[in-house]
Backbone:
């Protein structure tokens, strides 16, 4: 493979004395959509937190375009071009929609670019433009998810990490969000998606990893994973 | 009527001092969910450093009363800001990952340490501010004669609070402080250096507290190493009254408490002044535990 963007090598993570990731290896190429599947507690969430620097690696390394990320504090990871849409959206509820978006661009200094990016996000999610002066906490769940994605995009990331963007949303809304994510991907933003909704994730992604109990047990093209009997059994609810 | 207006202006002046102190409590609480019990000692230290600088540099004689006191205030604020940042570095930052109770105990320890240090350096007696720094004139307005010092305190406090409000609400860094207060993890994910936010809060809060200490010295003329305790408690009450963690709330709570206290002291009984202030606190905790301006938006989950 040519343009390796994100590479995780033998990553071990501990919470206290308990090791929760036992040597993860994962690669994402520029422009790809990659998904990580797995049950609750498999370590998907921890993997994303470690990439973003909110959790420290006990052993192993994470490289982003050759830069070692595992040595950087969280706020510097964003500057490298990595943005995360956290699970549960975590928008700043008592700030306005506009303030939330502007904070997404906290690390950028070029106000003309920030304005352009904001206009692009208003184009992707028109509702965020209409409700710019409303407090983020008063938005519906779906709108908050859009805001969380928009906020992450404001830093003009090269890779977007998404944690359960479909959680708690109506099926129609999930479809819209995935469509928009594809549109975002087509502008050149690489996507790494953690999902419990395996069917939607595999339809959307190019490649997938399956995690179980802190290890990667399977990785393949998304199409191959959909037709893999074990994956069907465990994550797609029997025969597809 | 005249007595009412006198007490109203007096209450507003004292209340604006409470508000300045309350801001220090509320900002630290907002970001760290920690009550900085040593904040009241920073107020005391502000009053003492103000006295020392006033007498040793004779600024009022050289620059005239207004400019002299203004420069003095800037110096005191700068010094107390540095002490505040050091306090965080020594007493709170090593405990950032520890259970919250550890930091609370450390705050109490820091408070006792600072209070005793001030006593060892300056002695336990009351010290007097020179009474001729600001001219003893009064200004005739709304039908009463208001002392100049009262008007100055009110104006300067309101200017500082306005400046802080603008900084917090309108600037990029101010918005980052509010974001870090809401969700530190999410703030880090958008690239905010939360450690820097904490440092900033421990510079601004103590600076305002230091200014408040200087004002107390100028207004009442007498300072004591233990004075921080009662003003700190009042300001803490004001912060809760407005809704702890809420910056406009601390300003409103301070002014309101000052006026209620002044009115209660005049029309009910002076001896009941403190009791009235704390009765307000108890009532607020029963009727509206989030404070007057706290939690305006219910978070959807």
Residues:
């Amino acid at each position: 493979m040519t343009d390796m963007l994100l590479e995780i090598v033998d990553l071990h993570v501990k919470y206290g004395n308990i090791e929760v990731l036992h040597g993860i290896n994962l690669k994402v190429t520029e422009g790809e959509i990659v998904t990580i599947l797995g049950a609750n507690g498999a370590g998907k969430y921890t993997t994303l937190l470690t990439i973003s620097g909110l959790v420290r690696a006990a052993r192993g390394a994470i490289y982003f375009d050759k830069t070692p990320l595992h040595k950087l504090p969280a706020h510097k990871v964003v500057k490298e071009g990595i943005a995360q849409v956290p699970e549960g959206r975590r928008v700043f509820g008592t700030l306005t929609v506009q303030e939330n978006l502007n904070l997404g661009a906290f690390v950028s200094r070029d106000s003309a670019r920030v304005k352009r990016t904001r206009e692009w996000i208003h184009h992707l999610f028109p509702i965020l433009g209409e409700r710019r002066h409303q407090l983020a906490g008063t938005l519906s769940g779906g709108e908050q998810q859009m805001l969380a994605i928009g906020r992450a995009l404001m830093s003009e990331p090269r890779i977007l990490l998404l944690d359960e963007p479909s959680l708690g949303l109506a099926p129609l809304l999930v479809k819209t969000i995935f469509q928009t994510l594809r549109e975002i991907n087509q502008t050149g933003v690489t996507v790494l998606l953690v999902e419990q909704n395996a069917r939607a994730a595999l339809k959307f992604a190019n490649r997938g990893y399956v995690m179980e109990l802190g290890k990667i047990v399977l990785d393949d093209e998304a199409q191959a994973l959909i037709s893999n009997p074990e994956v069907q059994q465990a994550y797609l609810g029997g025969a597809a | 009527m005249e007595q009412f207006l006198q007490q109203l202006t007096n209450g507003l002046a004292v209340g604006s001092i409470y508000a300045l102190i309350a801001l220090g409590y509320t900002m630290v609480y907002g970001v760290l969910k920690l009550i900085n019990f040593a904040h009241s000692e920073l107020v005391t230290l502000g009053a003492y450093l103000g006295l020392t600088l006033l007498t040793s540099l004779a600024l009022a004689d050289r620059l005239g009363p207004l400019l002299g006191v203004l420069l003095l205030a800037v110096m005191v604020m700068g010094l107390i800001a540095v002490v505040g940042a050091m306090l965080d570095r020594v007493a709170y930052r090593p405990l950032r990952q520890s259970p919250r109770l550890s930091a609370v105990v450390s705050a109490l320890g820091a408070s006792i340490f600072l209070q005793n240090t001030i006593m060892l350096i300056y002695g336990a007696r009351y010290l007097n501010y020179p009474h001729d720094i600001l001219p003893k004139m009064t200004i005739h307005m709304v039908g009463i004669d208001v002392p100049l010092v009262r008007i100055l305190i009110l104006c300067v406090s309101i200017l500082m609070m306005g400046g802080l409000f603008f900084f917090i609400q309108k600037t990029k860094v101010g918005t980052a402080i509010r974001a870090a207060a809401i969700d530190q993890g999410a703030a880090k994910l958008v690239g905010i250096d939360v450690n820097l936010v904490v440092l900033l809060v421990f510079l601004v809060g103590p600076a305002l507290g230091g200014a408040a200490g200087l004002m107390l010295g100028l207004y009442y003329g007498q300072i004591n190493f233990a004075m921080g305790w009662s003003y700190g408690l009042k300001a803490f009450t004001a912060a809760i009254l407005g809704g702890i963690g809420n910056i406009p709330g601390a300003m409103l709570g301070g002014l309101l408490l000052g006026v209620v206290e002044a009115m209660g002291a005049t029309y009910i009984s002076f001896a009941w002044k403190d009791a009235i202030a704390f009765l307000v606190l108890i009532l607020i905790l029963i009727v509206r535990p989030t404070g007057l301006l706290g939690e305006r938006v219910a978070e959807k989950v």
Remarks:
- The two ends of chain B are 52 Å apart (CA to CA).
- Chain B has one domain: 2-287.
